[in-house]
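Changelog-adjacent note: as of this version, every example in the card shows the full chain rather than a window. The one below runs 571 residues end to end.
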Amino acid sequence: MNASGAEPLTARPAAGTPRHPSHRADVHRGPVGSELAGTLMIARHILRRDRVRLCVWAIALTAFVLYFSVALRTVFDPEALAARAAVMRTPSGIVMGGPGYGLDHYTPMVAVANEGITWIVAALGIMSLLHVVRHTRAEEDAGRAELMGAGAVGRHAPALATLLVLTAQLLVITVLGALATLAGGDDASFLDGLGMMGGSTLAALVIGAVALLASEVAATSRTATGLALAGLALLFAVRAAGDLIHREGSLLSWFSPFAWPQQMRPFVDLRWWPALLSVAAVLVLLAVAAGLSRRRDLGRGLVADRAGRSQATSWLRSPLALAWRQQRGMLLWSCLGLGLLWLATGTMMSTLADMGRDLVSQTPALAGMLGSDSSAFTGQFLDLILLFAALCAAAYGIVASGQHCRAEETSGRLEAVLAAPVSRRRWLTAQLLVALTGTAVLLVVSVAALAAGALAVGVDDPDVGRYGAALLAHLPATLVFAALSAALFAWVPRGGGLAWMLIAVVFGIAMFGEMLDLPDWVQGISPFHWVPDSFTEDTDPAGPLMLLAVDAVLSALALVGIGRRAIDGGL
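Full-length structure tokens:
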């Protein structure tokens, strides 16, 4: 103590003197100025924040592999498997499955690999891109990244932590999925299952890296999600076109990560080296993303938003205008990506008749399924393609309605909007209206692109009117997903992922419902069960009209629910 009785001030340490290890910067940063400081701390936070979401994805993907393996082993005899192999030689089988290795000896696990890898990669890819955008670009939009960066956190730490958690999640899914393949019977092998799931998860990690790149380029999380979804659709189209050029994959196929796990040939002739392509692609994309990150300001995209007018028009004051401005970027990029995908798919129609004629004449099992009419291939192919186009639009609807609204709520922006003379129901009505309209527009663009591709190569059967009728029949079922997502947001805000579960259920019912002879009440869970096959059956308006009523009820429930709960400004 000094003469006045006061405690002496602590002297500032001399330059170069190490500070006490309990200092926060020393604990988390390591070397001063490290761009990766705080990575593990952020990773722990992401794990705690998303623990339920990550578990649901892991359980759902494992259950899909387990169900698929058991079903093909117990339900299908060798003759039925031979018929499935014949279908995998058709254009629709190649597009929706893959190049088709082991078709001459089609065992249950060969069928799992041939028919399941594409959809495992697609599901994991969607999971990966949503995860990456949620914890990178969306954090910057909400302002939390700036607060975090004010502490002892390096510039690249959030992105690296996001990818570390994603990698750990994919590793867990790899092991669980490989164990699930052991239920496939005598031809099951843990090593082959590990190859199938490992190749698929590495391909999904590539898509996650693409989403990270999109998050650096885009100015908002919605635009980044749209860019990433467009990239996913483009990569799928490249793989499909390449496999159609040559049944076991052409040079074009190798430019898509969808093809790399298929080229590992699990359960046929397992080889590991194609997995190195995924590793190399991830490293290259991460290096590019890191370089772009250094060239932009926090909270800004590499492609900046255009400067607005000096004076806004009066209509921009409404919640509807706000919803449109928030969602237009994602809608634009989704339309572009899916439009190109289905345009390329439509150009494949010119080869269907000749291929169908050859396959029917050469494959008795296929002739028994379709008869001698090779034109049946065209109708069945279009019905299947239209279903997947509708599912893609439905996935957009889930993101644009409930998930977008939840992001606005947790970021605190919703509270700021409601502080103005805007009611909750008016705000949600605007968001839902834009989401439903965007879903409809995306489906219109998809069907129009499919028809345009077919007409471009001289295919005029079915005619344009048939495409229009198919669009109207599928639209109400597609809108169910956006309306359900909004209702879940209003009543169970933390249960928005249930809408994605419906996507998985619909896919399983569409692919295996009739083959497994599921009861009608189970198949009726899928909204598309009530939609007739527009290119092979006469259109019955009863199902679509009933689904319109379902859309109205779910939308009304959403508007009722948002007024009955508290607005959560936190996570």
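Structural remarks: Residues 376-411 form the longest helix (36 residues).
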